[in-house]
UniProtKB/TrEMBL annotation:
The record marks Y161, K231 as: Critical for catalysis. Pfam families: Iso_dh. GO terms for biological process: glyoxylate cycle; tricarboxylic acid cycle. Residues 29-413 form the Isopropylmalate dehydrogenase-like domain. NCBIfam families: PRK07006.1 (NF005425), prok_nadp_idh (TIGR00183). Binds 1 Mg(2+) or Mn(2+) ion per subunit. The modification N6-succinyllysine is found at K101, K243. This is Isocitrate dehydrogenase [NADP]. Belongs to the isocitrate and isopropylmalate dehydrogenases family. It is an enzyme of class 1 (oxidoreductase).
Length: 417
């Protein structure tokens, strides 16, 4: 494919087989978005750490050919002031199959819609996978942070994130309200003028493909349970249906049977004969449970907004969003991404924790099958934290720690590989 502003480096493409497995060459071209705000701080450190891990693991026989692609403020500088998410950025992720991105700014209440959400929707990256685990020594507000070891499977293409909403007082909002009242018999809109309207689509197909991936993950990674998190008591036909369809996939496709008469279920992991329990929890109770009884939860499948909240809340138990990684996955394309935002007050200060995007890159290496390099990153992060050489977010909560800049923390990770 010909690109206008993207320079394609020397290297080869990762390709995807019909069964969605990858063919990864020794010099894969990997597109990356630097990101707005603290993207300028964390992304270069991530590139340096990954290059060091790959070089150490494979003694020069493998090397990533990084290819910068643009989105957010940088795209408006490289293309034109109205181009926030260029078509060719999307094409590059499709063509090269595996990529990584820093955070992108989304204005609140008006202006452009989320570029992060747009990327997920355009590329149908329907899984947002966010593992949350504790590294020994990381400061935590809970007594036993080591009990937190969960993997969130957040539905990434539906729910109120679909962006179907109209501003209060707009002709569109008024028209929808009129339709609801006059044609659907709705009487419960408390104030029916100057009322914003949002729509929450949740489908059987969207739910089932997400839960299917989460259950397969539980099987492949020897996990004990999958919890469907929903607010189905209130939103019966969206969140409640998510729960029902989730159990249905477990039953119809994985052979799950009711436990003690249901609704919880279990099935046998075909890899090792162990039971995998499938259960559900209402979302507000879950936010309490993850603080009080985190050891009881393992893989979590949930809707888009719940997943956004739960992943940040869980991250806070194990060091904060500065260190929590994530991936956006379709069947064919994977974009790894920091879970935090652009933290504008810290932008360009070489201060923040680059751990989130570095650990996202670690997930990317694992996805590519470069396990030795991924293991080195974990070793480096563990070593830097154990030596108490950390960025401000950890240093302010740790006794006797040495405060490092963002880039110096990257170097400490490399030193401990
Ligand atoms: N995927 C994405 O690209 C995302 C983008 N965003 C966007 O980012 C912008 C800012 O959002 P905001 O709500 O302020 O959330 P942010 O995640 O940007 O920042 C909130 C706070 O989290 C802490 N934090 C964030 N990143 C780090 C880090 N790397 N190291 C250490 N601490 C960190 C800081 O806490 P403290 O002040 O205590 O030091 C910071 O003030 C918005 O436009 C939002 O839409 C938000 C989330 C995800
Ligand atoms: O797109 C955004 O601005 C926020 C997204 C977000 O919070 C997330 O993906 O966790
Ligand atoms: Mg979020």
């Amino acid at each position: 494919m010909a690109y206008k502003k993207i320079t394609v480096p020397e290297g080869s493409k990762i390709t995807v087989n019909d069964d969605y497995s990858l063919n990864v060459p020794d010099h894969p071209i990997i597109p990356y978005i630097e990101g707005d705000g603290i993207g300028v701080d964390v992304s270069p450190v991530m590139l340096e750490v990954v290059d060091a891990a790959v070089s150490k693991a494979y003694a020069g026989t493998r090397k990533i050919a990084w290819m910068e692609v643009y989105a957010g403020e940088k795209a408006t500088a490289v293309y034109d002031q109205d181009t926030w998410l260029p078509e060719e950025t999307m094409n590059a992720f499709k063509e090269f199959a595996v990529g990584i991105k820093g955070p992108l700014t989304t204005p609140v209440g008006g202006g452009i819609r989320s570029l992060n959400v747009a990327l997920r929707q355009e590329l149908d990256l329907y899984v947002c996978q966010r593992p949350v685990r504790w590294f020994t020594g990381v400061p935590s507000p809970v007594k036993h942070p080591g009990d937190v070891d969960m993997v969130i499977y957040r539905e990434n293409s539906e729910d109120i994130y679909a962006g179907i909403e109209w501003q209060a007082g707009s002709p569109e909002a008024d028209k929808v309200i009129r339709f609801l009242k006059e044609e659907m018999g709705v009487t419960k809109i408390r104030f029916d003028t100057q009322c914003g309207i949002g729509i929450k689509p949740v489908s059987e197909a969207g739910t089932k493909r997400l839960v299917r991936r989460a259950l397969q993950y539980a099987i492949d990674n020897d996990r004990e349970s999958l919890t469907l998190v929903h607010k189905g008591n209130i939103m019966k036909f969206t969140e409640g249906a998510f729960k029902d369809w989730g159990y249905e996939v477990a039953k119809d496709e994985f052979g799950a049977q009711p436990l003690n008469g249901g609704p919880w279920m279990s099935f046998v992991n075909p890899n090792n004969g162990k039971q995998i329990v499938v259960k559900d929890v209402i979302a507000d109770a879950m936010l309490q449970q993850i603080l009080l009884r985190p050891a009881e939860y393992d893989v979590v499948a949930t809707l888009n907004l719940n997943g956004d909240y739960i992943s940040d809340a869980l991250a806070a138990e194990v060091g904060g969003i500065g260190i929590a990684p994530g991936a956006n996955l379709s069947d064919k394309v994977a974009i790894f991404e920091a879970t935090h935002g652009t933290a504008p007050k810290y932008a360009g200060k070489d201060k923040v924790n680059p751990g989130s995007i570095i650990l996202s890159a670690e997930m990317m290496l694992r996805h590519m099958g470069w396990l030795e390099a991924a293991d080195l990153i974990i070793k480096g992060v563990e070593g830097a934290i154990a030596a108490k050489t950390v960025t401000y977010d950890f240093e302010r909560l740790m006794e006797g720690a040495q405060l490092l800049s963002c880039s110096a923390f990257g170097k400490a990770i490399v030193k401990h590989m």
